Amino acid sequence: NAGVTQTPKFRVLKTGQSMTLLCAQDMNHEYMYWYRQDPGMGLRLIHYSVGEGTTAKGEVPDGYNVSRLKKQNFLLGLESAAPSQTSVYFCASTFTWDRGSNQPQHFGDGTRLSIL
Amino acid sequence: GENVEQHPSTLSVQEGDSAVIKCTYSDSASNYFPWYKQELGKRPQLIIDIRSNVGEKKDQRIAVTLNKTAKHFSLHITETQPEDSAVYFCAAGPLFSGGYNKLIFGAGTRLAVHP
User: Fold this and answer.
1) Which of A34, A82, A94, B77 holds its CA 20 to 30 A away from the CA of A52?
2) Do A97 and B89 touch (CB under 8 A)?
3) A27 to chain B nearest CA, in Å?
4) pLDDT digits (tens, 9 = 90+) for B43-94
């Protein structure tokens, strides 16, 4: 049981390039999330998904797109990378929401992305 | 919008002392309050959480208290050890009608425990 796995771990891009970050979980979780972590700002939600085939915007969605074609995978895409997107990106997943009861989120190891 | 404020941003203690980190949230609909520990270069890991129907929860040297009236919650670490050195994040989780589990994170507290 690997939990939440993110690939790649590091990447350097030039401004304007595109790339996709992959998140995979083997815990059969319904909910998946993408966060970015910047110094002094905690974790900010980019996009999330409540199930296969569904996605929605979080706090800071501009410049990113996501897809959830399979329940276990959640992809984050940067169509035209900008220096402001330099950050550490974390994926997380959680159990199916039980009405009236939030559940802990389980995080991957992160992807450190630098845009030059 | 929803906001979680966390204080202090840095905390330095001597080994064996206690450490307290405080968070204040703005959304009164929040009913779930987890704390995460993040070591340098690692993933955030849940260390303890509390729900709004409970005022205090303990797990060995770690405890969390919640004051819903004042909308603040705190992490208490007793008998600190060097391996407690890390960044700690609080979060508050409101429930939405859409049903998704949303967390708003504080900015983090960098705790340093000196031998």
Assistant:
1) A82
2) no
3) 16
4) 999 999 998 888 899 999 999 999 999 999 999 999 999 999 999 999 998 7
Mean pLDDT over A89-104 rounds to 76
Long-range contact set of residues A7-13: C-beta below 8 Å, sequence gap at least 24: A7/A111, A8/A111, A9/A109, A9/A110, A9/A111, A9/A112, A10/A111, A10/A112, A10/A113, A11/A111, A11/A112, A11/A113, A11/A114, A12/A113, A12/A114, A12/A115, A12/A116, A13/A78, A13/A81, A13/A113, A13/A114, A13/A115, A13/A116
Q: Which of A42, A99, A108 sits opposite B106 (nearest CB)?
A: A42
